[in-house]
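User: I'm preparing a small set of examples for a lab meeting where we compare how different chains pack in three dimensions. I only have the primary sequence for this one, and I'd like the structure in token form so I can line it up with the others. Please keep the answer compact; I'll paste it straight into my notes.
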Amino acid sequence: MVQLLHRTLFLPGPVGRLEAVLWSVPEREGGARPPRAAVVCHPHPLFGGTMHNKVVYQTAKTLHRFGLPVLRFNFRGTGLSEGKHDEGRGEQGDVSAALDFLAAEFPGAPLLLAGFSFGSWVGLRVACSDPRVTDLIGLGLPVGSLGYREFSYLDACDKPKLLVSGELDRYGPPEKLEAMAGRFSPHVKERTSVAIISGADHFFAGRLAELDRTIATWLVERHPGLVAHDA
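Assistant: Understood. Below is the structure token output for the 231-residue chain.
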């Protein structure tokens, strides 16, 4: 059984410290590095989004169940993080700071980035251009609120990615998500998985178990060597 090795800390961010929680894993035999390490980005802070959001927590829990150390953090101006909200611009630097921390904490381990709503918009943009990140998970991409062009950076992002929306998501309508993915080049499209969770709204209320299964299935398909442990 994987232990939750909780560690609350502050990361050095571009405009001050960032409040964070790291769920690590027991040291592997011979001191081997973990198979990968993950960071999960939270939804819009001006609408109550924090690293303790239920979708962010569930995503972190799912990834940790597969033996991945997982970092959650609060964007600038959220919780105990310093600075103030910057409408997604400066927050990209916050994501980079989180990735820098993970890379230093787990040298050589490939990184996975997951983001929910605002966290997907900001996080995936950074992750697409960071060579340390090999896997992407976008949840509730707000393609209905921000519009397709705000996600145009995904057009050329050929990293393997899972994009998940709820059937009833009014901020990220499935038809708009699928239309966006349909515009990708053939190479990018073949490395993109789109999943629509039946009956789920933007916050996956009452559907977190389905979200867990969706992420877990994709993760194992991508990395057959990963083994889930009891929570």
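A couple of notes for your slides: Strands lie at 5-13, 16-24, 37-41, 70-73, 111-116, 133-139, 161-166, 192-197. The chain has a mean pLDDT of 94.

User: Perfect, thanks.
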